[in-house]
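From the shared-data thread, chain only:
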Amino acid sequence: MLKFSTTMARTLPFVLLLAAAGPGIAQPAYPNKPIRFIVPYPPGGSTDPMARLAAGKLAERWGQSVVVDNRPGGNTIIGTEVVAKAAPDGYTILLASTALLTTPTLFPRLPYDTLRDFTGVATIGKSRFVLVLSPSVPANTLQEFIALAKSRPGQLNFASSGVAANTHLSAELFNGMVGTKMNHIPYKGSGVLVTDLISGRVELSFQVPITVMTYITSGRLKAIAITGDNRAPALPEVPTFSEAGLPGFRAEGWFGIVAPAATPKHAINKISSEMAVILAMPDTREYLIKQASEAFVSTPDQVTALIKADVAKYARIIKDANIKIEH
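Structure, as tokens:
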């Protein structure tokens, strides 16, 4: 039988206590150096405000720099690869948006695996989409429009801000759900798109409300339904798709934060908990509303699950609609 000396017996509880507490004691404070926040888009785009909001607020709370680093190119693949191959230490994070979810299907030979190489950290905001019609379209409700589109297969044109953009994918999801066949007309920017929509050169578009709000309120465009669970405060007269007779139609874009897959849990949880506090701040919520978004809080596990679900959802839409991007 193994025997312990009196000294060992007295010392053992303290040794065990230190062993149990050791990882916590040894773990360095986070963050203790600047964090690089990669944005895989050019400066000044619609994604920049989300990244700069999160970076600015995190820096304020931590007293530590969070540097927004724009790395555009390659349909967001260049910037995303930087993060996928960065040291998984919590000091390099990525702004995630729809492109992270669609590129696995659009570009089968990515230099990273979206589901394997990233882990969810937090969400920041989500955007609704409103279905707007040209004044020339003889429909004033969603059901009237669906009936019209079904009676004119291949004759109606929908405008988007680009191939595989949210505004494109939302319309293709709509096509698939209701059994309509409409033609896609991609644009570069909302200016010409809205002009052509008002003039009737294209019949419809799914747009973020801020892009078309002025034209809806002035009566130059007809808004017949909006995504989301409740009506938008800025467009109280526009019914949700569920209210308008198409329950289950969910087309919302979201922005969030992801990190390399092996990033320590304490760093991920620190960013996540801070973002939850930041998103509850009245000035944050007001800022997001001005950006045509709303605060969206998720745990790291929820973000990871959302990425997995949305990659599968967009893969179905892209394949069903046979969407291709010229490489």
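The mean pLDDT is 90.
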